[in-house]
Design brief:
This protein is α/β, with parallel strands linked by helices. It has helices spanning about 10-20, 40-55, 80-85, 105-120, 150-160, 165-185, 210-225, 270-280, 300-305, 335-345, 355-365; strands at about 60-65, 90-95, 125-130, 190-195, 230-240, 255-260, 285-290, 310, 350. The chain has a single domain (about 35-365), classed as Glycosidases (TIM Barrel), CATH 3.20.20.80. It contains 11 helices and 9 strands.
């Protein structure tokens, strides 16, 4: 997620969640029957990618929302609230890998969320705001720790095997691999989106000439060393991404290309320019809108043809949801409840139950389960805590 104005509510909610996460287990643990599903990920991924390609050609798209690292501990997360608002199950669930390193209870909650959505035949996409491994993170692992600066020289050393910097980075990646391996063992096909918004200057990996080498290094550790086979790689820039070629991987090309757009206008030029600039890198590759604040207009959907659109969670889904902090007020880039409902009611949006059963089976690795009953959620974010 980019460094735009709405930031403090995330920090406040995270603090509330972490205050309780060490005393309770996953609320859904007893409801999720963990067992291995079909390991034939290549075939399953091919089925899903073919479907998404045809879907975009027909002018339709999948959609969903993000459930962030602090939300997995809550009784009502953004997906629960979205379903309550629209009455339909979105096809796409976004999750965050951060916290797996330093907060042991998190991994179980994270896995439960991913497995539940996947077993229902939904698409699971995972972002990773990796902390700067070369700097002390006072909270162990936290969003702001992905924003501490790293020099080009430090990155070069980090990418050089045998250096202390490389060992620190590798230790974090190995933990990520462990968590992703749990999803592989559960049969979850993961649309993995690391090191995103690389053309922005807010993350330690941002605006670095060595970014392509960083992407390739991560791929090689996860795929070639750890042998993960359940990852569909998603490369996503920020807004128009005019300098996209600077960050294009050299060896390991992504399976899906994308951009993140946070604007106050649902018809912003950033949607169109981002699609144009990024599609130029790989014209035959699926394109997605992997993070948006304001829901894109029907014209944006028609002209950019995204495979999916993921609206950020929290009060991006409803500007009236607030945790009471001053920074949560006046979110011009957030949607009203009416705007969110209208977006998901658009005939271009295909929800979970409208997807072909063969595609849901490919995502689930077995016969897809019916969507589980969701909790009743209070009207505001503040009430749920």
């Amino acid at each position: 997620m980019s460094n735009h104005l709405f930031r403090q509510p995330r920090t406040a909610l995270a603090a509330v969640a972490l205050a309780t996460c060490f005393t309770t287990g996953p609320a859904s643990a007893s409801a999720v029957d963990h067992h291995k599903t079909s390991p034939d990920f290549d075939k399953r991924a091919s089925t899903v990618m073919d479907y998404l390609s045809g879907l975009t050609e027909d002018g339709k798209t999948l959609a969903g929302t993000q459930v962030n690292e602090y939300e997995v501990f809550l009784k009502c997360d953004s997906m629960d609230r979205l379903v309550q608002m629209t009455g339909a199950e979105p096809a796409v669930l976004g999750l965050e890998l951060m916290f797996a390193n330093e907060y042991p209870p998190f991994e179980d909650y994270f896995v439960d969320h991913a497995v539940t959505h996947s077993r229902q035949g939904g698409l699971v996409t995972v972002a990773w705001h990796q902390r700067n491994p070369l700097k002390v993170c006072m909270r162990g692992e936290f969003y702001t720790c992905s924003q501490t600066a790293m020099t080009a020289e430090e990155l070069d050393r980090m990418l050089t095997p045998g250096t202390p910097e490389h060992d620190l980075w590798k230790a974090d990646v190995d933990v990520a691999a462990r968590t992703l391996k749990r999803l592989e063992d559960e049969g979850v096909l993961v649309f993995f989106r690391p090191y995103h918004e690389m053309n922005g200057g807010w993350f330690w990996w941002g605006q670095k000439d060595a970014y392509p080498q960083l992407w390739d290094a991560l791929y090689e550790v996860l795929v070639e060393e750890h042998g993960l086979t359940n990852l569909v790689w998603v490369w996503s820039g920020n807004r128009a991404t005019e300098d996209a070629p600077r960050y294009w991987p050299e060896k390991h090309k992504p399976d899906i290309i994308a951009t993140d757009v946070y604007e106050t206008d649902s018809d912003s030029a950033s949607f169109y320019d981002g699609a144009t600039n990024i599609k130029a890198l790989a014209p035959d590759t699926l394109f997605a809108l992997t993070e948006v604040g304001k829901a894109p207009s029907d014209k944006v959907l028609a002209e950019t043809q995204p495979a999916w659109v993921l609206i950020w969670g929290g009060n991006y889904l409803n500007a009236d949801w607030t945790d009471g902090s001053d920074s949560a007020k006046g979110c011009d880039g957030c949607n009203t409840m009416e705007e969110t409902m209208a977006f998901f009611a658009n005939e271009r949006i295909v929800d979970l139950t409208e997807m072909p059963k063969s595609v849901r089976k490919a995502l689930a690795g077995e016969e897809p389960e019916a969507p589980a009953e969701r909790p009743y959620c209070p009207a505001t974010l503040l009430e749920s805590n």
